[in-house]
Amino acid sequence: MVNVSLYCCKNNTHKDWKLCKSIAPVLAQPISEKIATADLLSDGRVIVGLGPGAFPDEFINYSPQGYFDEPRERVDRFIEGLQIMINLWTTDQVTFNGKFYNLKDAVLLPKTVQKPYPPLWCGGVGPRMLRITAKYFDAWVPSRGSTLTPTPEKYEAGVKAIGKYLRKYGRSVKNFTFALLGWMTEKVVDDIDNIEKFVQAGCNYYIVEIPLTPLYPMENTFS
Known about the structure:
The chain is α/β, with parallel strands linked by helices. It folds into two domains: 1-118, Luciferase-like domain (TIM Barrel, Alpha-Beta Barrel), CATH 3.20.20.30; 119-223, Ribulose bisphosphate carboxylase, large subunit, C-terminal domain (TIM Barrel, Alpha-Beta Barrel). The chain contains seven helices and eight strands, in the order H-E-H-E-H-H-E-E-E-H-E-H-E-H-E. The strands form two sheets. A six-stranded parallel β-sheet has the order 1-2-5-6-7-8, covered by helices on one side. The protein has a two-stranded antiparallel ribbon with strand order 3-4. The longest helix is centred in the middle third of the chain and has 20 residues, at 71-90. The protein is globular. It starts with a helix and ends in a 15-residue tail after the last strand.
């Protein structure tokens, strides 16, 4: 996030900056502050990707508790952290009494440029995470690289489930974004056909990720 903040100062043409972070391994308060700073320096161009975390090393090495929680506890921590972040961005003074986190008269300044706060994206794919996504988030962006890689059929089921929950919470489906994080392989034609299937399933944006360590020889990608 520090690097993004610095680059925001140097670049005023990039439309959106996407910051992705697992809340559970670290405290929500410093994340909230860093996101607010990046949003300020970018003049309101930040999009925030958040999740409960899925990598044991992050929890063991960086979390206050120092161990990898069970899925239910990770999600419980995630919800509390998310509520704290939203409160810090939107409230002058925050007191929070939760199962995992507690705040008393906490203040975050400056606030985010975007109001009430930057767009929130989530990639959770479990039934509970789909409900949480519909309740708190502005976009759903699962990853094709995860252990729960969605097929077009499963993606469509997720779109329909989130749509149902959005209506339940009185939120607009039209204002919600459905995206997918993926990559291109050696078989570009097959990838394009597959992307079209996801579009038909309700995907608005297919985000191509280029890994630092290629999963395949890059020189063969577009041969």
